[in-house]
Amino acid sequence: GCYDDATFEEISLEAMARPRNEKSVEYRHIRLKNGLRAMLISDPETDKSAAAVDVRVGFLSDPADLPGLAHFTEHMLFYSSEKYPEEDEYSKFISEHGGFCNAFTSTEDTNYHFDVNSGDFEAALDRFAQFFVAPLISKDGVGREIKAVNSENSKNLNNDVWRNMQLWRHLAKKDHPFHKFGTGNLETLKSDPEAKGIDTHEEMLKFYSANYSANLMTLAVYSKFPMDDLERMVVTKFNKVKTLGKEANVFDDTPFDPREHQCKLAKVVPIRNVHALDFQWLTPPDGKVYRHMPMDYMSHLIGHEGDGSILKRLKDLKWATSLSAGPSPESYSSHSLFLISIELTDEGNSHVPEVSKIVFQYLNMLRDEGIQPWIFEELKSIGETKFNFRDKQNAGYYTRELASGMHLYPCKDLLLGLHHVPQEYNEDTIQAVLDCMTVDKVRMMWLSKTHKGKVTDVEPWYGTEFGMDSLEESLVEDLRTCGRSEHLRLPYQNQFIPTNFDLIEKEDSVKEVPEMIYESEMSELWYKPDTLFGTPKGQVYLSVISPECYCSPEAAVCTNLYTKMLVDSMNEVTYYAEVAGLGYSIQSTTVGIQLVFAGYSHKLLDLVEEVIKRLLAFKPKLERYEVLKELMQKDFENTRFDQPYQQAIYATSILCLQKKWHIKEYLEVLKHLTFQDFEVFLGRIMQRVSNQVMILGNLTKTQCVGFVKTMEGILGSNGTRAIFGSQFPEKRVVQLEGGRDYVYSQPVGNEEEENGAVNIMFQIGRDSFKRNTLMQLWVQIAERAAFHTLRSVEQIGYIVCVMGWDSHQVKNVYFILQSSSHHPSSIDASVEKFLVSFKTRLAEMEEKEFEDQKSSLEQVKLEKLKSLGQESKRYWKEIDESAFSFKRQELEVEELKKLTREELLEFHQTYFEVGSANRRKLSIHMVSHKMPNPEGDGKSDAAVIEDVHKFKRTMHVIPCAFAADNR
């Protein structure tokens, strides 16, 4: 294991800025002899390890006649290598050792990353390094994987986000790399090249050897191993990556022609029913001025939602429902793009010139007022607080960000740059961004179905219908001379910025799990101080249970609308809190209303009390009711454009949950709902309630009990009483009949969608620690095996997923697949065939592999929590489902250790094998309108569900689980 010191050099990190709360983490930065730079992070506290390589080449470097080649190359590196020739060996190794791996290709980067249980890190890193040392890119693999790339592209074809991104690119100089299509499909990677006599496989080998050069790669590794061990692993595994010593490709010249592409408006027909108005400007490259963060300053002001903001003015006029502003995803190193995106109401859609005028009046106000040092200082203070008290991130995500950041920021500023912490006030760089944002340089995009039939151009890759014109002279003149508006001004100083970060005194007998510290007729309070993270943050979960909220489709719609109107009515206040790091959400549930608050503990309870007071004093306004009802209706209508696999999961929940209203019913309700109906309903919601409260973090028992009593006082003065025991809503699940298969087939919602999907559910049964772990172990092994068989070999489609799924403490296994080439009934048959072969795999499994699989699962289950938010989610699920198994992980691991191979095989035979009396299978088939019917009569032995309600009425339901079941 000896290696020569001359193979690398260490680069000093003395000045690197680091978070205050990172006590035991060490960083080291080295450059190998071949030019590859690596950031090594040793954190003795982590139990997951991770690595990422970012190669400085992306789809802007695709050859002109092979669009999608960089992305296709990224797919192929996962197949195999000279050292590990077995196909899919890397992915299989990662997923069987508690890990996750992925990659993505962007404009100038291809980023590969994984995380894994720490004990298996060196073996995983060895496999990973081979991507860059000696991959085997086989002709046969290329022939198959082309279908996965095509399938990945087909899932994006009806997605407005992808369509719009490509349209922005399309509306650029034809010969500029910015104009390219990066995903690739069968046409660009197979039929076109074949017609021109180009061999895609050969070209890929050339592309790889021309661009995958060590000096263009950055590597980040994060693990608990001592620093010298990490250094040894990296040096010995990555010093064999070859180097060409070439410079990264640079794309300096501007992608737009001022005459052709600026001061223009593109009218676009979207897929979803939505109206939106986007403004885009080319601005100086953001990366070079990261210390000043000019884009963050601009997006803070333009995207503000308090009084005096663009959004507040547009809302008052009933013209818009949301606005976002910031760097556009199409930005790259030589050019940044700033994007303002406004979602319009139907009324706003007929006032586009006036909406545009308000945007330019706001920009004029910013020019008039000048760049404000106090605003920069506020952002800097918020940024530094967030940086110093940041939560631990998922290891794989963290290394992925670090590796790409190493191309952008010098090491001393790497962490600050990645966390967007402004460091130096510089009026000129902010002014330079504002100077670009003129009428003459704007590119506008107006999305609305109302353009259908009036525009004649079609974008070639996604088929987006659009029309591009110069802005009308009169409008340009109007926008140039629109001056200022008395309704628009800078935000106020933020009162929610925390200044006290003291931690509460630790009590002597601290519980490791939440305990109930207060109980009354109306409320239960579960509490746990922060014992793990030592951070000045808190989390408050509050479920207001009301029998009125979900008693009918009308009630569910009104409750949902009520929560949306509440959030909307408080936005001017709560937006300041959110900017300062205090987040909150209000959502309707099947039992009532759930509120979640999270952030710095200093002002957290102030926010909670403010929100609860406003919630009870809430008086709906007719004009906001109309706007939000319209928005809700569009949201419901647009679910038919969801991905087919999402529609399949939704259909599963409709069939399996005893009480669940359908979106179609909600749309019926909205047709007839009046403002008067709504007001009457609001009077009923809070008549009788029960509160479940959970508070975690840097707050004392006294504070928490005091808060719940205050809340009960506010409710009492409002005339609210506690609900009766008999009124508690029940969450029940339909029990499928043992030994029977059911199938429910539906057309996909969108006629233009070429993909169909299946969700094949096997119902396992009620929560029981032993059976839960058997299911988790089965899924862990089946997941990769299914991916290999059904995606890599059979190429059914890009989305192939096996997972455990809980519905109200009832455990299920889902097989989720989406395909544009295979009919759902043939996918179903493939899954059955897979299950037969998988039984053999389990029967032949060696004892050693079985024990390895168990130990991987154990490590996943006992993985340390990374943040207070993650801890809260885990405990809240136990409270919300009335399971109260706060030590579930440890108790399940005790069961896991005892499991035998025979038990796992028996589990398979009981729940998955055809003919078993306990197999309970439900197949949801979402069929594409473009898919021909399958060969043969398509008959199987499955019971066909024609009528959902009839089906549910004739089935048993599974009893509600009680906490005692597991004890």
Automatic annotation (TrEMBL):
Gene Ontology terms for molecular function: metal ion binding; metalloendopeptidase activity
Signal peptide: none
Protein name: Uncharacterized protein
All residue ranges annotated as the Peptidase M16 N-terminal domain in the record: 38-173
Record key words, sorted: Hydrolase, Metal-binding, Metalloprotease, Protease, Zinc
Domain Peptidase M16 middle/third: 387-668
Annotated InterPro entries: Metalloenz_LuxS/M16, Pept_M16_N, Peptidase_M16, Peptidase_M16_C, Peptidase_M16_M, PqqF-like_C_4
Presence of the UniProt keyword Calcium in the record: no
Pfam families in alphabetical order: Peptidase_M16, Peptidase_M16_C, Peptidase_M16_M, PqqF-like_C_4
Biological source species: Chloropicon primus
Highest taxon above the source species: Eukaryota
SUPFAM superfamilies in UniProt: LuxS/MPP-like metallohydrolase
Domain Peptidase M16 C-terminal: residue ranges: 200-381
Taxonomic classification: Eukaryota, Viridiplantae, Chlorophyta, Chloropicophyceae, Chloropicales
GO CC term (a single one): cytosol
GO BP terms, alphabetized: peptide catabolic process; proteolysis involved in protein catabolic process
Family the UniProt entry places it in: Belongs to the peptidase M16 family.
Domain spans labelled Coenzyme PQQ synthesis protein F-like C-terminal lobe: 779-876
